[in-house]
Write a structure and sequence with these properties.
Lysozyme; 12 helices; mainly alpha; 3 domains; 327 residues; two-stranded antiparallel ribbon
Length: 327
């Protein structure tokens, strides 16, 4: 009898919310059926938990997720990506523009393609991303590390914002880490925490894989954020993201201009090229001032967007991954 009262109360609550009448005279079986129908048809928004797979593959290696700690950490990150609606959707749209640039560089440097998802969780594919700690660009290099791996960084030029050069620098870092650990997911952890910290903790905690380490929350989550990002990008519909072809950001074609001298006024230079200063800066975010000093007479490549690609034409948008869109 108590159970029936509770069932009636739940049903009454649902129907009151929907503005319907309360089915006081239903039998138990009818009541249960009514509850199922009410939940499906009357609740305007369903919050569900994405299923955690028993295993995933990262950089060609199968990772078991049935152990409780791994499963729960993966569960958390999948839910985070699922319910950060605008950020996740925006990142998928941006990936259509930037993955075609990054993937060939990873391949040329023998870095597993899955490391493009490291860039996803580092910056949400925001080319102007900068952390409170000072990490910058899509790969989020700190200034000292960026310079160590060959990036020019000063008040006039900051190549952490040059996607091609920053990706090549990231590849060097990742290859060095792999030579040390021989395990790609541990390499990912080291990208966040630093090689010194991960090496020290592996030794102190007597394990061989970073996924078995007790680490600060940021690094502990980091590895599973990469795995979750891959799951979402490989099948966005499973996580509730429905995108059409025309909603993805198209690739922009550029004319490359070689520069070996300084440019006193970038606004005037942009005008001469038939674009605005804003468009020049958007195409070359590594230019950090209103001029290009180039006192050392270095060679720079400026990207000048082609006129036909500066205007949206959804019919011409190429889909980088068919998994991202619905027919």
């Amino acid at each position: 009898m108590k159970k029936n009262k509770i069932s009636i109360l739940v049903t009454a609550t649902l129907t009151l919310i929907a503005g319907a009448s309360i089915p006081f005279l239903l039998s138990n079986e009818q009541l249960e059926e009514h509850q199922r129908h009410s939940i499906k048809s009357e609740v305007p928004y369903m919050v569900t938990s994405p299923e955690v797979p028993e295993h995933v593959t990262f950089a060609g290696k199968k990772i078991d997720l049935t152990r409780y700690d791994r499963r729960e950490r993966m569960d958390r990150e999948q839910m985070s990506f699922t319910y950060m609606h605008s950020t996740t959707m925006l990142t998928i749209k941006r990936a259509n523009r930037f993955f075609p640039i990054v993937e060939p560089i990873l391949k040329a440097n023998d870095i597993p393609d899955d490391f493009k998802y490291l860039m996803v969780i580092e910056s949400n594919l925001n080319k102007l991303a900068k952390s409170p700690a000072g990490a910058a660009g899509m790969w989020q290099f700190m200034q000292g590390t960026g310079k160590e791996y060959g990036l020019e960084i000063n008040t006039n030029i900051d190549e952490r914002y040059n996607l091609v050069k920053a990706t090549n620098a990231a590849c060097k870092y990742l290859k060095e880490s792999y030579a040390r650990y021989g395990d790609w997911i541990t390499v990912a952890a080291a990208y966040n925490a630093g090689n010194g910290r991960i090496t020290s903790e592996l030794s102190k905690q007597l394990v061989e894989n970073a996924m078995d380490l007790w680490l600060v929350e940021e690094t502990s989550r980091y590895m599973f954020r990469i795995l979750a990002a891959k799951q979402v990008f490989e099948n966005p519909q499973r996580f509730g993201f429905l995108l059409k072809k025309e909603q993805l950001y198209p690739v922009i074609s550029y004319d490359e201009v070689t520069v070996t001298t300084g440019i006193e006024n970038l606004a005037e230079y942009a005008k001469q090229k038939g674009i605005t200063y804003a468009q020049l800066k958007d195409a070359n975010p590594w230019l950090r001032d209103r001029s290009l000093e180039n006192k050392s007479k270095r060679t720079y490549i400026l990207s000048i967007p082609q006129l036909e690609d500066m205007y949206y034409n959804p019919k011409k948008t190429k889909v980088h991954s068919k998994a991202w869109v619905i027919d």
